Amino acid sequence: MDNVAFLIVISLIFTPVVGAIALLFLPAENKSLLRWFTLAVTLLVLLPTLYIALPGSSVLSFQTDTANIQDVIQVAWIPSFDIQFFLGIDGISFPLLLLTALIAFLAMGASWTIDKHVKSYCVLYLLLLAGMMGVFMSLDFFLFYIFWEVMLLPMYFLIGVWGGPRKEYAAIKFFLYTLFGSVLMLIALLMLYFNSDLRQLSAPQLAAAHVAAWDDAGERLSPEAFKTRIDASEYPVHTFNILALQQLGQHSEVFDQALLWGKSIQWWAFLLLFIGFAIKVPSVPLHTWLPDAHVEAPTPISMILAGVLLKMGGYGIVRICYPICPDAGYDLVWVVCSVGVFSMVYGAFAALAQKDFKRMVAYSSVSHMGYVVLGLGVWSATAGNVFDPISWSMGVKGALFQMIGHGISSAGMFFMVGVIYDRVHHRDLNQFGGLYGKMPIYTAMAMLLFFAGLGLPGLCGFIGEAFVVLSVWKLSGTLAVISAAVVILTAAYILWAIQRVYLGPEYKGPHPEALTEITWRETLIALPLCVLAVVLGVFPSLMFRYLDKTVDQQVADLTEWTEQVKLPQLRAQQAEADQDVAANQP
After folding, report:
1. How many Å apart are CA 474 and CA 2, to the nearest integer?
2. Residue 140 forms beta bridges with which residues?
3. CA 295, 301, 304, 309 torsion: positive or negative?
4. Crossing angle of helices 357-377/440-454, nearest 10°?
5. Contact yes or no for 103/136 (Cβ under 8 A)
6. Which residues have CB under 8 Å from 28's CB, separation 6+?
7. Which portions of the chain are predicted below pLDDT 70?
8. Residue 51, Cα to own-chain centre: how many angstroms?
9. Among 141, 481, 93, 157, which residue's Cα sits nearest to residue 296?
10. Is the peptide bond before 285 cis (omega within 30 degrees of 0)?
11. What is the pLDDT of residues 485-536, one digit of tens each?
């Protein structure tokens, strides 16, 4: 990577940090300057991300024809523990980087209504953006964990200081839930690190994992030279390299040792990691922080929460849980899929019961993210003896597309709720009505985004849900039918909300004179989300072109592991069981 490309990639993380530092020297009383400066910084993150996405933009263009990690930045950070500043982009992370940069830019545009402690708000906002971008680019588990934690404090203060009447309660609940998940993740991280052994990997596997070491002159060692040093114990054998941990999980037995109650290290690591990531998704029963956080958070922070932060849980599952701990993922398939389906059903029924407009949208996120967990959990080889990698691929791609589609529609829905809340200062669904007559342009844009959340064919919410439902069929027809039926519940609460808020009788709540048409600033925020909701629904290939190669490679790797490792184990166990039965027969 040349120096210009290096600076562009590294800027995705450090531009917000530099911007936050620069804000400290700007006058706190000039709120307009602070807002415009912060918006400009988020634009400086969005533009390079779009530049990478465009085909033909020099060597920095995202290569859709390869599954390899691209735009790699790898620098020794703490060599004695093989901790590196290791960043990279592939088809799983890049669409989420695009989503993060876009939602952060639009949410900052929605922050013009923030009038208290604007300087502190903008500083915390940019630090949050840096943490989010870092999570999706980190390929060192230790670095990933640091960026994961970097997001915690800014979000805590953004809810606790600028939130609603119960902001302290919501912020503390968010903090405690997230911290609990982080502790479990840290335990799993250390379990994997201290049981990893790079000596178990061949030189080609070390090269595929981008395992790096440098000689005394600062020159990077070749994979063969590094393998020699590793075998001679001249370099730490443990690693935080996520790609190397994936190779170890699929091509060695270092994580297969029994740890507790007959379960292996990777089984427990998978369980701890899954719980930590499920809290962020959020999945039932670990979801209760989300409705409170959404209801009390200001509108732009709700957009960030729904549009980006929830996706980090799904990203962690697909990036870390399954590739590193495939045997545990195989064993716990019914647990993961059941959690996904239960979240879908519970979230939909809970949304139906809400009278608070924003809380209804929050519970809809619990339901929609259940599709993500289900799609990632589909491991169809456990359905009898049917081994169907196509369903696995469809589930992962559907889940990843659902994350992008939900990020667009949910951020749009929360923004639309915030628009009318800023005018009338309440969210009681039973007091709304007839907004179409007062705000026709706003109503049209809001209904489009709500229909996208409903999963209407032709909009961004449909493709992901359809793929997930299709992928689970061979695993369990029952789960497939239930997950498909959730669409009826989704239509019920979305259409009922549209009827009560935008159609029906005249508005019955306070401040009817404030119900004026959407402003130009609000239109500029909602319009890109509306356009993307339609474009991705009509042309889903625009997103799949980034996903396909990386997901196909991961599916191929896990298919190879299943065929070479897991299926022979199952056949041996079945043969042993048959022998025992035959021996016990008279």
Report:
1. 47
2. 241
3. negative
4. 30
5. no
6. 34, 118, 119
7. 1-5, 56-59, 215-216, 218, 380-387, 585-586
8. 22
9. 157
10. yes
11. 999 999 999 999 999 898 878 888 888 888 888 999 999 999 999 999 999 9
143's CB contacts (< 8 A; 6+ apart) are: 77, 83, 84, 85, 86, 134, 240
Check residue 382 and give its pLDDT.
54
- Residues of the chain above pLDDT 90, percent: 54
Supply 341's token pair. Answer: 């389906």
Instruction: Provide the sign of the torsion angle of the four alpha carbons 185, 191, 192, 193, taken in this order.
Output: positive
Contact 391, 378 (CB under 8 A): yes
* Residue entry with tokens 């026709």: 440
Please name the residues in contact with 386: beta carbons below 8 A apart, sequence gap of 6 or more. 380, 474
Query: Facing residues of 85 across strands?
Result: 75
Q: Which token pair is 193?
A: 């690190």
Is 297 exposed, middle or buried (CB count within 10 Å of its CB: 0-12, 13-18, 19+)? buried
Which amino acid is residue 520, in one-letter code? Answer: W
Cβ–Cβ under 8 Å, residues 155 and 182: no
* Cβ contacts of 336 within 8 Å, gap of 6 or more: 274, 329, 373, 374, 376, 377
Strands 83-89 and 258-260: unpaired
Q: Is 393 helix (H, G, I), strand (E, B) or coil?
A: helix
Amino acid at 380: S
User: Which pLDDT score is estimated for 515?
Assistant: 86
Beta strands in 1-47, from DSSP E residues, in sequence order: none
Alpha carbon 2 to chain centroid, angstroms: 30
Strand 83-89 and strand 263-264: the pairing is unpaired
Q: What is the largest CA-CA distance in the chain?
A: 91
Amino acid at position 557, single letter: D
The two structure tokens encoding residue 376:
């990632």
* pLDDT for position 408: 94
Q: How many CB atoms lie within 10 A of CB 260?
A: 9
Distance in angstroms (rounded) separating the CA atoms of residues 360 and 335: 27
What are the CA-CA distances from residue 6 to residues 63, 84, 98, 313, 323 (Å)?
A: 16, 16, 18, 28, 28
Structure tokens at 52: 């990478």
Q: Which one, of 237, 140, 137, 252, lies nearest residue 205 by Cα?
A: 252
Q: What is the pLDDT of residue 126?
A: 95
With beta carbons less than 8 A apart as the criterion, state whether 364 and 351 touch: yes
Residue 138 backbone dihedrals phi, psi, to 5 degrees = -75, 135
What is d(CA 184, CA 189) in angstroms, rounded to the nearest whole number?
9
The distance of Cα 440 from the centroid of its chain, to the nearest Å, equals 34
Residues 272/305, Cβ–Cβ less than 8 Å: no
Place of tokens 């203060």: 157
Rg over alpha carbons for the chain, rounded to the nearest Å, is 24
* Segments in 151-280 forming alpha helices (H): 152-162, 167-195, 203-208, 223-231, 242-251, 265-280
At which residue do the structure tokens 């997901």 appear?
551
**How far is residue 320's CA from residue 339's CA, in Å, rounded to a whole number?**
18
Return the closest-CA partner of residue 381 out of 212, 244, 555: 555
Element (H, E) at 77: strand 70-78
Please write the tens of the pLDDT for every residue from 383-409.
444 567 888 889 999 999 999 999 999
CA 396 – CA 152 distance, rounded (Å)? 27
The set of residues, in sequence order, having a beta carbon less than 8 Å from that of 79 and lying 6+ positions away, is none
CB-count exposure of residue 180 (10 Å: 0-12, 13-18, 19+): middle
